[in-house]
Write a structure and sequence with these properties.
Layout lengths: L1 H13 L9 H21 L6 E14 L11 E16 L2 E16 L5 E18 L2 E11 L4 E4 L4 E5 L5 E14 L2 E14 L5 H6 L4 H5 L4 E17 L4 E12 L8 E13 L2 E11 L6 E5 L5 E5 L5 E13 L1
Antiparallel strand pairs: 1-2, 1-16, 2-3, 3-4, 4-5, 5-8, 6-7, 8-9, 9-10, 10-11, 11-12, 12-13, 13-16, 14-15
């Protein structure tokens, strides 16, 4: 439309000599009509195809080096990165929202090998159609996994418990979204399918991922659930966007088996811009899933140790970071 307006102006300018003898009143009338037409086109612009994209990327680094330090201690090196990305589309009554949260970090202390202390892939896509003010029919697809192998470290040994796509949790839902503002949304999904896939044959990895013992006995590495869920999303900023926060709280109940055991997931991020490219952030990730079993080393009669299941527990992961940050 912009190109059409510019072309129209150019044609008008080129035609002025030929219209020099035209009646002044006719010229004024034509100009008024042209101006009114441009005004009407400009008002239509907000209804055209519109994407809103953005995000932020951060890189954090810390290092400690000790030489003949009388108080003792260990050399250490920590490196971590994270990114929040989004691409949202809106036209008329149709919305399409996409997001990705990626995080990875490693730490090395003393002469021990490097281990990860942060690893998360969380992506989602949601499409909706407005049915009433602030209400949308929606369909959503979510996926959660990690980048690299994960281990549980104890004073006795190391236990392999996760890897890329081991597990991956996927959710497909149909329902309604309530969006009173761009900062708040509540998703009601009475029909939600949850699938767990594990790219591993290790019994500990399978059990800790939520694959039940009866499925393991059948040599299966996937689990399917059907239920309902609610997702609360909240985001905002203060002090000219120098302080921002994002919160996503999820509830899921499996209709087919023990629906009273509700799965709970909460992701919270809080970020403060200290300078143009320096920021401090806090991330909190909490999970309770009755099917994700924890394990503890139990001493056997022959003196060896074996991983024994000890039920589900609240999982908590917290990060505090200061480093380079770039928002776009």
């Amino acid at each position: 439309m912009k190109h059409i307006v510019i072309l129209s102006i150019i044609l008008c300018v080129l035609s002025l000599p030929a219209q020099a003898q035209a009646d002044k009143a006719a010229i004024k009338d034509a100009a008024a009509k042209a101006s009114a037409g441009v005004g009407r086109d400009a008002k239509k612009l907000p209804d055209t195809l519109k994407w809103k994209k953005g995000g932020d990327v951060s890189l954090n680094f810390s290092q400690t080096s000790l030489t003949n330090w009388a108080a003792g201690g260990e050399n250490s090196l920590t490196l971590s990165s994270s990114s929040n990305l989004f691409a949202n589309y809106k036209k008329g009554k149709v919305i399409w929202e996409n997001y990705a949260f990626l995080a990875y970090g490693i730490i090395r202390a003393g002469d021990r090998k490097s281990v990860k202390n942060s690893d998360q892939i969380n992506i989602g896509s949601r499409i909706g159609y407005q049915m009433a003010k602030n209400w949308y029919y929606t369909a959503a697809l979510l996926g959660k996994t990690q980048f690299a192998p994960g281990y549980k470290y104890t004073s006795i040994d190391t236990t392999y418990i996760s890897n890329f796509l081991a597990p991956i949790y996927t959710y497909l839902s149909l329902g309604l979204d309530y969006k009173p503002s761009s900062k708040v949304s509540i998703s009601f999904a009475p029909a939600m399918g949850k699938a767990t896939f594990v790219r591993s044959n290790d019994p500990v990895v399978l059990s800790s991922s939520g694959i039940t013992q009866d499925l393991i006995d059948e040599d299966k590495k996937s689990r399917y659930e059907f239920g309902g869920g609610i997702v609360f999303n909240l985001n905002g900023n203060f002090f000219s966007k120098r302080v921002t926060y994002i919160s996503q709280f999820e509830l899921f109940s499996n209709y087919l088996k023990e629906p009273q055991n509700v799965d709970i997931v909460w992701d919270f991020q809080f970020r403060i811009a200290l300078a143009k490219f320096v920021a401090a952030s806090v991330r909190l990730n909490m999970i309770y899933d009755d099917d994700q079993k924890t394990f503890r080393k139990e001493r056997q009669s022959d003196g060896s140790y074996k991983d024994e299941p000890h039920g589900a527990k609240l999982q908590v992961k917290e990060y505090f970071e200061i480093g380079l940050s770039y928002a776009f």
